[in-house]
Structure formats: structure tokens, C-alpha cells
Amino acid sequence: MVALLAWLLPHHPELGFSAGLIGLTLAAASQPGDGEEWLSQTWGFAKLIMPLLLGGVLLAGFLLGRPGHEGIIPSEWWC
What we know:
The chain is an all-alpha fold. It folds into two domains: 1-30, no CATH class; 41-79, no CATH class. It has four helices and no strands. α1 runs antiparallel to α2 and α2 packs antiparallel against α3.
């Protein structure tokens, strides 16, 4: 399925990646024991890191700005 999506839609690699990720998750969830534990640990890690990642991205955008717009820190200071 992943190879088919990559071949049919070469300009959208995110679709093949998403299909592979969903397939891996479903395969792991269907395995008793280690697969269930892997899925549980992965979900726990995602819940821990996502708020930190989101906060870091928002803080960096606030401080450094975006292309064409200055942030709090002038671009002359860090370029």
C-alpha cells in the first residue's frame, strides 16, 4: 500500500508515510504482549513531549519571528 501510494502520488509523500505509520501502529496493536506495550509506551512518550514541543515552537516563533516579519529579537542579532 505504501509503495502504491508513493508511486501513484509522488508529489505527496506524506500520504505514503501516513499509511506506513498507520499500518505499523495497527500491526503493533494487534500483537499481544510486546506490541501492546510498545504502543502504550509510544503514546505515553508522545503525551509527554508534545506540550514541550508545541511550547518551544511557539516561543521560537514569538522570539525570532517568521519569514518577512521580525520577532522580539531583531534578526541582526542572530543572523
